[in-house]
Amino acid sequence: MKYTVTFEPDNIEIRVDKGTNLLEAALAAGVHINATCGGQGVCGKCRVMIEAGEVDSEKTEKISQDKYDAGWRQACRTSVMSDCTVRIPVESRGLKLVIAQQLDMGKAERKVSALDTKPLAEGWKLDPMAIKVPLRLSAPTLQDNVSDLTRFSQGLRQQHEIEDISADVRCIKAMPKILRTNDWFVTATLTTDPVRDAFLPGIEKNRPWKLVRIEGGNTSDQNLALALDIGTTTVSGQLVDLRTGMGLAEKAEYNRQIQYGADVITRIVFALKPEGPKKLQSVVVSSINEVIDELLEETGKSKKNISCIAVAGNTTMTHLFLGMETRYIREAPYVPAAASMLLDVAADVGIDLPDCVQLYTFPSVASYVGGDIVSGILGSGVFQKEELTLYIDIGTNGEIVLGNRDWLACAACSMGPAFEGGGIKHGMRADLGAIEGFHINPVTLEPMVVTVGRTRPRGVCGSGLISVLSELLSACVIDRNGKFIRTLPSDRVRKGRFGYEYVLAWSEDSDTGHDIVISEVDIENLIRAKGALFAGCLTLLESLDLSFDDLDRVIIAGAFGRYINLEKGKLIGLFPDIPVERFHFLGNGSLLGARLVCLSSGMLSEAERIAKMMTNIELSDNHSFMDKYMGALFLPHTEAHLFPTVCEYLDTKCQMIQSERNA
Amino acid sequence: MKYTVTFEPDNIEIRVDKGTNLLEAALAAGVHINATCGGQGVCGKCRVMIEAGEVDSEKTEKISQDKYDAGWRQACRTSVMSDCTVRIPVESRGLKLVIAQQLDMGKAERKVSALDTKPLAEGWKLDPMAIKVPLRLSAPTLQDNVSDLTRFSQGLRQQHEIEDISADVRCIKAMPKILRTNDWFVTATLTTDPVRDAFLPGIEKNRPWKLVRIEGGNTSDQNLALALDIGTTTVSGQLVDLRTGMGLAEKAEYNRQIQYGADVITRIVFALKPEGPKKLQSVVVSSINEVIDELLEETGKSKKNISCIAVAGNTTMTHLFLGMETRYIREAPYVPAAASMLLDVAADVGIDLPDCVQLYTFPSVASYVGGDIVSGILGSGVFQKEELTLYIDIGTNGEIVLGNRDWLACAACSMGPAFEGGGIKHGMRADLGAIEGFHINPVTLEPMVVTVGRTRPRGVCGSGLISVLSELLSACVIDRNGKFIRTLPSDRVRKGRFGYEYVLAWSEDSDTGHDIVISEVDIENLIRAKGALFAGCLTLLESLDLSFDDLDRVIIAGAFGRYINLEKGKLIGLFPDIPVERFHFLGNGSLLGARLVCLSSGMLSEAERIAKMMTNIELSDNHSFMDKYMGALFLPHTEAHLFPTVCEYLDTKCQMIQSERNA
Lengths: 663, 663
Description:
2 copies of one chain form a homodimer.
Chain A: E1 2-8, E2 12-17, H1 22-29, E3 47-52, E4 55-57, H2 65-70, E5 72-74, E6 78-80, E7 84-87, H3 96-100, E8 109-110, E9 130-136, H4 148-160, E10 165-167, H5 169-181, E11 185-192, E12 198-199, E13 209-216, E14 224-230, E15 234-241, E16 247-254, H6 264-270, H7 276-299, E17 306-313, H8 315-322, H9 327-330, E18 358-361, H10 371-380, E19 389-393, E20 397-403, E21 408-414, E22 434-440, E23 447-451, E24 459-460, H11 462-474, E25 493-496, E26 499-505, E27 516-519, H12 520-543, E28 553-557, H13 566-571, E29 583-587, H14 589-599, H15 601-613, E30 614-616, H16 623-631, H17 644-662
Parallel strand pairs in A: 1-7, 8-29, 10-13, 14-17, 17-18, 19-28, 21-30, 22-24, 28-29
Antiparallel strand pairs in A: 1-2, 3-5, 3-7, 4-6, 9-11, 11-13, 14-15, 15-16, 19-20, 20-21, 22-23, 25-26, 26-27
Helix pairs in contact in A: 10-14, 10-15, 12-16, 14-15
């Protein structure tokens, strides 16, 4: 059920779901309301008057009975229950004109859950990695006493026209008993045999069926797969029904390797210790097992229903998961042990599933362009389209792929952990209390702060940092070098221990009891991170004689990417300044591709082909990249012609703000 | 150095090696010398007079100084050191005419050690199961930072034109360090990838190279294979140099599974117990490990020089070795779990070798025609020749293969353990003190007994039983039903507790302090065993409208078979009565074939083809077999026309003996 909320006096409308928090509705509409406690209701600043319509809002200490009776409410404690009209008090209001000129990003497609996302790849049919076929065999006689395995294979040939088969030894061992205790009526699970060892590049392989499981009776109605994305921070999994192609559930857990380091580099360093690789493998597997348990619990399915797993991860995650040497990924010239490395049995690496469950791992391209990117390119269909696409996966490393169905080039640029809160004084992950929504009144410089869970602020998460940075910029609180304007009439901008800073939350509003700030040092780190990504994209384009204008599509992938406000990303120069309709938010593209290979053997071959097709362009010693990186250390960029729309918007807005401030 | 020994007064000559024991020379020449202590020198009966030539013989208590000076010696304590003339005293002498009429078997080719045996298979070239190639790679740079595995594969392609490769995950894991600590100069071990799982029948597979090991520097001069025959009683192994194709050493140990039962049936019964399969697998592997240690100790080679193992064994041994279900091999209709079952890593079943060592297991045909027979057919070249061949492997089961390059039929008949000493009162294995050589004086009925190790007799081994049985028959001590002649004038033939028996050794001559005898019950068991084998051969031939006369060759294989006297085997009806030159003794054919697959990838494919090509004829419910079996329970056979030469010989000899006895 959707309702329209009209904010007065500027008459700004927004359609929201029933029950939407009013403060968040205002934030989404670009309506400024002072709010400093993150949404917990304790600062009492976000008072609004409900002029019409129905809301759900308790009476709080911050609103007197008189005021309450008159229709005043705390926006952060109020849910929208019908169409309504809300008046913003004068002390909260920003500039109407400014608001009206915000860049529109509503047209960019955005999916929140990969479970809801249809693979963009086309032309594949349901031809899953594992199939289950029932078999009714005749009992042996003295005249026909071939081995059980031979009888079984004859049955497959005669009843299902399946010819080209190998069989797992564990399966052969179990076969005699299962056949006889089930009166020779059984169900065979067959998997396409991706590769049981790593095949060296350039070699095409047949992928014959492999017999991995026999069960009594007909169990062919239960055939599931698990698609997994092993991220540096998060392990995500989907349970997929191989008969229908439907995703049944999606779960995510922190990658427990975090305890040994926040990024791949610190984990590689940890892996140099004697027991390091073993510990890192064991904890990531325990995270995976947890995701599996949650998926099964939610769907009421059993472990024995799972036939196969497809795993996508960056090169380091994949190496650690399989117990491979990672040392040389970190040291120049950045060489992985193997680009293509596949095991056959999930249980062999410790995954808590029956030992018949087959494991497929996506091939990688280079040390910093891994199987997750190959999987994303597969799932996004970039490799099939004539359109020129730029695929961006934002994380500690920004991975970029450029190309179409004829060619693919890729690069990785070290953005550093700034956008994940690393190296930022009050940076944090998107946990409870992390500032994610932020708006600033350009005249009063008072903020509107919304946190994850609407509790008192504890810090700022990645998407919050982008909001904060773009707001500071577009409200003329910082200049385009990322330095604070020194003359602003607010105690929120001050000189702190580490240089100038803006106080996002005073100690009395924060959960930590300390002021929460963003400093010029933090801003410098963020500018470096966004600069690296942008320079990477530009270098990749120019190395192929292309420019942003040539792009038909930009796909933003990555779990983090899906929370980023496109407009704000453009404002700070993180994303190129091209029309909004060319942008697509994919969500977790890696997980999408992993689901796709479970569903289609043809796509599984395509994944191997994509990995071989991608040309990696090493940026770390690329002079052109270094030049472009220096040029990008500006908001949005030193070269204004690269961001025409953004620069025009900023120029106009700054003029207006200056005149307002001077007034 | 060979010398001629002439036995007088019958002027019988034999050529023997320098140092040959004189008693054994007499036995081989068919010259009877009374000897009852097995060759230990304590009975003093084997006195002979050295009339000319040089012998090496100590003075013993049994010969007075006068006699010694006159040239008397104990034959069992005497070695031949030149051409010599030896006179047999009258009390020892048998019948000259009889001796002269002995069937000649000298022309049958006989090999004692499989190590000396050249495979009879033809047309193969040295193209071993595993190769080692040195590789000098360039170190990676930022411009060329492909994965180690990719670099490695490029090197193989450029330096050795090796393209089609997969790689073991363990190997990829070790690769980064080995490459860097050896300055990118390494040696790769590649194996033909027989099958990493069991391939179902009827499917042709590519056998691409598989990378299994990387070592620093150039180690390609050390590349060994292990050929193994897992017999029910004995585990035999050969160490093979894959560069030259030479066998370096051969060793054998008892299969320690013996403690759980002497034959496959009792072991299958033991395997029904909860821990049975695990125990049986573990002990046979410990026997294999012992053989490996001995081979390495003898040759001074190291475990790390071994690249691959080929294993041949009967179906039950192979199942137990790999830990597969054996229950249904024993129960009608006798179905193995799998005919073709292959693991890839020897260490996975517990063999104490590095985990890069690849394991190939021969495919079997049926529950009682196993990989050892497939291996024997391969090694013997039967599958390549136009000539029609009957291949016989004698053991607890008699396995028979009939055919040529166009077709192969096989059958197994349960001979029982009689020829291995099982179910025979004083039967034993061919250990120290086992009677193996036996001759009888048809007039005095005194025996000539030679034991393994020439020590006091402890019992009779398999080849000894054949000697004893044929001697009792041809000396008219038993009739053609296997019953003792009741009227013989010797206390050696007597009625014992279990019916009539012949005393092979009196208690004072034996090592056990008891009389060692062979009884009518024992003889019955032996007749059943030889009857089963002969009936099996006949059934197989007749089922294909063939007779023994159609055979171009008979190959006798099996470690036991190589000690059998062909003539004596014919006499009792164990072997068909066809010309001696058609017989070939192969020794351990199974081991021979195992060596061959190590040396030639082509032969490895042939092994798989042979297994599929063989048609198994089940004898257990075959009425024709049962009839033929009944007919064969006679010495040599109820149908004299099947043994024309033997019957004529026996008739003539018996007449002579009767007239001599009557004289």
